[in-house]
């Protein structure tokens, strides 16, 4: 089942109209309709708003089997690529029922800079290749391959790839996003 179909199925399961989801998510009815019909790819922020309006975790939209112990084989990693975002996200561990950490492989395109964000939880990142500018609160850090950082996610933070080559990060955080 594709993303839009999963959203529509959950909305109908709850007996909600597009208008109700629009009001709860802050997204327009027209946009939600386009998402449901696979005519628009939502950003992570939009998908998070939809998930909250539908009473589910973001992971609801990324189908995967759930186990207590998870082994992820190379080439079998679920990937999330949203058209509006210049990066790719690969799950490194799938979804265990009682697991708290979310390990992700993130590939940032050259010259990408995110908007500052804050949320519950904690983040750890390790630069595998390329360069990363990390802004945490008022502090700015320039990281290269082999460098790591950890910070509370409640502090506003942003990422940037100042280089002309892709940057690859190992990101581990809580709470789980997918």
Automatic annotation (TrEMBL):
Keyword DNA-binding: yes
InterPro entries cross-referenced by the UniProt entry: Cro/C1-type_HTH, Cupin_2, Lambda_DNA-bd_dom_sf, RmlC-like_jellyroll, RmlC_Cupin_sf, TransReg_Diox_bact_type
PROSITE patterns: HTH_CROC1
Region of interest (Disordered), ranges: 145-165
GO cellular component terms, semicolon-separated: cytosol
GO MF annotations in UniProt: DNA binding; DNA-binding transcription factor activity
Domain of life: Bacteria
Residue ranges of every copy of the HTH cro/C1-type domain listed in the record: 7-61
UniProt keyword annotations, A-Z: DNA-binding
Name of the protein described by the UniProt record: HTH cro/C1-type domain-containing protein
Organism: Deinococcus irradiatisoli
């Amino acid at each position: 089942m594709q993303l839009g179909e999963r959203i529509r199925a959950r909305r109908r399961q709850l007996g909600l109209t597009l208008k109700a989801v629009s009001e709860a998510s802050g997204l327009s009815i027209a946009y939600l309709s386009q998402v449901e019909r696979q005519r628009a790819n939502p950003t992570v922020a939009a998908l998070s708003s939809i998930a909250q309006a539908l009473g589910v975790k973001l992971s609801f939209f990324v189908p995967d089997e759930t186990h207590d112990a998870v082994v992820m084989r190379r080439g079998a990693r679920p990937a999330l690529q949203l058209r509006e975002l210049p990066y790719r996200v690969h799950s490194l561990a799938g979804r265990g029922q009682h697991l708290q950490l979310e390990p992700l492989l993130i590939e940032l395109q050259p010259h990408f800079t995110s908007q500052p964000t804050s949320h519950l939880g904690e983040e750890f990142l390790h630069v595998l290749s390329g360069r990363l500018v990390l802004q945490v609160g008022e502090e700015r850090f320039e990281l290269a391959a082999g460098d790591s950082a950890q910070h509370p996610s409640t502090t506003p933070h942003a990422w940037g790839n100042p280089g002309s080559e892709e940057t690859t990060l190992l990101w581990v955080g809580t709470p789980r996003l997918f």
